[in-house]
Design goal:
The chain is of the alpha/beta class. The protein contains 11 helices and 8 strands. The longest helix is centred in the middle third of the chain and has 25 residues.
């Protein structure tokens, strides 16, 4: 997917901050309206974690990225930049939303939590320059090996933070972030430390159960390979021994090259792939074009960068289980 990033320049952000701070009486932040302490999350996966950990505590959680907005394309409004400075805690994931990274860097928030520092980032990609699986055996127990091509094509917005930022798509990585965020929130709101810990323990238990569901559900499969428009599933692929094949140049303005379509067709035939996955927040035109040209079916694999009315579930866990069902069908898992 070609990520179209419309960034606020440093000058624009500085101006926006000044505008916000100069007009607080006219457009006050959420924390001013109800008097509650405020946590601002950059986008859905961070918002979901914060709300799960905070639970019933009298702390408000707001997000910069509204439902239905592609996070990479986020444009920050002056009021949002102002809210960042007024927040007690800002939770974001550096490397995913450059406009947010820059605004957070200039904000005066008391606590700035970069989720990328709460776990280890890795570099992922897809084998856009070749796919060598000669002699690959799909027998049980051989899905944990290294993938020959992994990292050959770095995800286009992973390099800014030195790695792929999509850590929430591996439940075990997401649990690591949850534990780290719990500590940061407890520092900001020490009176709620015990409740935050209890909520975090419950969340980690649910994430551990989800990981076991994926491991068991994908154990007996016909193929390890899945094809997707958005190379966001590197952590998921690595965790469960899968091979992610991203389609280069898919966006509303661009299409896959004839050479890449031919390569996808060859990979699909060799690896017994039946499905091209698209997602809910990005255009699916390119995926459907490739599916038609290769004779493959289409399905939805959601990177869960946001929840909207097209999402196959109302929260992270429901959509992850929908992803598992889609992968099981596409991979021929029994």
């Amino acid at each position: 997917m070609n990520v179209r990033r419309r960034l606020l320049t440093g000058t624009a952000i500085a101006g926006a901050t000044a505008l916000s701070l100069g007009t607080l009486s006219a457009c006050s932040g959420a924390s001013d309206k109800d008097g509650k302490p405020q946590v601002v999350a950059s986008f859905y996966p961070m918002e979901f974690l914060a709300k799960q950990i905070i639970g019933d505590a009298d702390v408000r959680v707001d997000t910069l990225t509204k439902p239905g907005v592609e996070p990479h394309d986020l444009e920050l409004k002056p009021r949002q930049v102002g809210d960042l400075s007024k927040a007690d805690v800002v939770v974001y994931l550096k490397g995913l939303q450059p406009a947010v990274d820059e605004a957070v860097g200039q904000s005066e928030a008391k606590h700035k939590v970069d989720a990328a520092t709460l776990t280890s980032l890795e570099k992922h990609g897809s084998s856009e320059h070749g796919h060598d699986h000669e002699g690959h055996d799909h027998a049980e127990g051989e899905h944990e090996g290294e993938h020959e091509h992994e990292g050959e094509h770095e995800h286009d917005h992973g390099g800014e933070a030195g790695g792929d930022p999509h850590v929430w798509l591996d439940p075990t990585k997401y649990a690591e972030v949850a534990k780290g965020l719990n500590k940061k929130l407890a520092e900001a709101y020490p009176d709620h430390k015990a409740d935050f810990q209890k909520n975090t323990d419950a969340l980690v238990t649910k994430l551990t159960a989800l990981d076991k569901e994926f491991t068991a559900g994908l154990k007996n499969r016909t193929t390890d390979t899945f094809i997707t428009t958005h190379a966001a599933f590197g952590y998921l692929a690595e965790r469960y021994g899968l091979d992610q094949e991203g389609i280069s140049g898919i966006s509303p303005e661009a299409e896959a090259s004839p050479a890449r379509i031919k390569e996808i067709q060859e990979i699909a035939k060799k690896e017994k792939v039946s499905t091209v996955f698209f997602e809910t927040l990005a255009s699916n035109k390119g995926a459907k074009t490739v599916a038609e040209d290769t004779g493959l079916g289409t399905g939805v694999l959601d990177p869960i960068e946001g929840i909207n009315d097209k999402s196959k579930g109302d929260d992270y866990f429901e959509v992850m289980r929908a992803n598992l069902a889609a992968l099981k069908q596409a991979l021929g898992a029994r």
